[in-house]
Write a structure and sequence with these properties.
Length: 396
């Protein structure tokens, strides 16, 4: 099955590619800028946005990836691990290699495409036949620990040396040594040391919330966020504390998966306020979000951001618009960041919006992060909210 001709494009990605120039001009003060695998690693990590997983066993693998890219997805993972039954491992590997070869033949490179492997041998198998014009961005390494992660990082580094484009690693932290209190700090310090030795190779650190909860026999309900599950929230806080520092020693950490996408009988009232939707004539659209449990996702995305986390793992295409709409920088955020970065010497001053104080030293790292996000996801106009972005996304 060939990649459809109208989905073939040059290398590089830009957020909201499905929107027209007229839509982009109406929504954005500064449009999202293109990013490639050769962009600075922190910029590329932000561009992951909502990372969508697809089982490697699908018989329409190339077609579904191409469709998702055309709909606005900017990062995907071909999954050889949890989404594949043990008996189908060989088939999954075969279809992954075939899909990458097909994309290379067609010169297709429209999103950041990764493979989640089970073993280091999978890395070797996938890269063994990659041509020069492949579109692979790297590998997701599940169950990552200090004692076992080195082999995978070295395999990816060795493979990357064969091409003029990098291959990145995204370790997933989800094992008992990271979650259990008595081993957490020691293990995270060892992981930090290992990742620092391969800093140029580590694109982002991912959090395996499903496995973390599974260690305690928990499956979180759609009425709560991951931050309401205290044992999981404690593990996330430890990961961010050790690996997410903004002093130059940290890494981009991506948000845990949101598992739900269909309506259900609710125990609690929706957490999504009426006002932003009423103000934008989108009351019915709010009802649609609530019926698909996206109000819980929106709340968790906000909590991810509040806890120093960027982007998110998702399992359904409808989640991508929510993540990307809330990733765009508002005019107010952009104004504050410019004020903070435009002055040296410390001190504080009132925001240009007149609703807060900007403290120039404590808020500087935040402002740098806002500018990086603005480059990737754009800056919305002052009369545009995430509701506008999300409704435009959903209409496509």
């Amino acid at each position: 099955m060939s990649v459809p001709a109208d989905t073939v494009a040059t290398r590089g990605i830009t957020q909201f590619p499905q929107l027209s120039d007229a839509q982009l001009d109406r929504l954005f003060l500064h449009r999202p800028q293109p990013v490639t695998v050769h962009s600075p690693i922190d910029t590329l990590a932000i561009a992951l946005g909502a990372t969508l997983y697809v089982p490697a066993t699908r018989d329409d693998l190339t077609a579904v990836i191409a469709r998702r890219a055309a709909s606005g997805v900017t990062s995907m993972v071909i999954d050889l691990e949890d989404a594949v039954a043990d008996d189908d491992e060989a088939l999954a590997l075969e279809r992954t290699i075939a899909a990458l070869a097909e994309f290379a033949r067609d010169g297709w490179d429209r999103l950041l495409l990764f493979v989640r492997v089970r073993t280091v041998a999978h890395i070797d198998a996938v890269v063994s036949g990659l041509p020069d014009n492949h579109c692979l961005a790297g590998f997701v390494i599940p169950k990552f620990e200090a004692a076992t992660g080195l082999d995978a990082l070295e395999a990816i580094a060795a493979a990357s040396a064969d091409w003029d484009r990098p291959l990145y690693a995204m370790p997933v932290l989800e094992t008992p040594r990271i979650v259990h209190r008595e081993t957490r700090d020691t293990e995270l310090m060892a992981i930090r040391e290992l990742l620092n030795r391969h800093r140029e190779r580590v694109l982002a650190v991912r959090i395996g919330a499903t496995d973390i909860c599974g260690l305690f026999g928990i499956r979180r309900d759609r009425d709560v966020t991951i931050y309401d599950v205290r044992v999981a929230a404690d593990a996330i806080a430890g990961i961010v504390n050790m690996l997410g520092r903004s002093d130059g020693s940290g890494f981009v950490i991506t948000g845990p998966v949101w598992e739900y996408f269909a309506n259900h009988e609710r125990m609690f009232a929706p957490t999504l306020r009426h006002t932003p939707f009423r103000d934008h004539d989108a009351v019915y659209f709010r009802q649609r979000l609530v019926s698909r449990d996206l109000d819980g996702l929106l709340r968790e995305i906000a909590l991810d951001r509040a806890n120093g986390i960027t982007g998110k793992t998702v399992i359904h295409p409808i989640h991508v618009g929510a993540v990307h709409s809330l990733s765009s920088v508002t005019d107010e955020e952009y104004s504050d960041a410019l004020d903070i970065l435009g002055r040296d010497g410390g001190g504080a001053q009132a925001s240009a919006y007149g609703n807060k104080m900007n403290e120039l030293k404590p808020h500087r790292n935040w402002a740098v992060g806002v500018m990086n996000r603005a480059h990737v996801f754009g800056v919305t106009r002052n009369d545009v909210s995430f509701v506008d972005l999300l409704t435009e996304w959903a209409a496509e």
